[in-house]
Structure prediction request, 229 residues.
Amino acid sequence: MASFRTGTGPKKSRRLVALALGLGLASAALGTASPASAKSTAEIPARTAAAGYVGTAEKAGSKAFFDAVLKSVAKRQADQPSLKVVTVYYNASQAPSFRSQISSSASIWNSSVSNVKLQATSGTGDFAYYEGNDPRGSYASTNGHGRGYIFLDYAQNRQYDSIRVTAHETGHVLGLPDHYSGPCSELMSGGGPGPSCTNRYPNATERARVNQLWANGLAQALAQVHKAG
Prediction:
């Protein structure tokens, strides 16, 4: 009959360290996001009306988020009103578990549209990414003080394709609303098609809409916001 030793000698300590390391490597190999440093609710900005990955579309939340990002970009680039290609800066330091997904999402959008580009910064960005646990899932929102941010939920990013979730939420940065009734080929359909959908790219209509919104740089984008407001 086998038995398990419960001693705490050096050999067991080495075995535990090896086991922990092995589990960590296995998790990394699977490519799934795991909490690098779980955030408490107090550290995450307050959520106002939001645009989520699943559930009922909150059009007001999507517009408020886009408006906040545009205002941040406008303030930073006030001395370059005729700039044709606008750069939107993001800070991902508060979502370390999703560093790869965020980078992939930015690359997808940068290769899909031509009038606006996403670029990482370690300083104050036009919007930020956060990570943590929220039963409502991932979403794009504002913090109540005119700043936009994207929240990435751990559980939802394990259930759904994580890069699709991130690219979808980043689509709100560029002005696209949710459309949950759309097919899997539509990035902004979000979680509507279900967890089996792994498409990470915007379709032709979505790409055209983003390029239209940013057609004449920041001035055109702001005009679109005021027209819709």
Remarks:
- The longest strand covers residues 86-94.
- The mean pLDDT is 78.
- The radius of gyration is 20 Å.
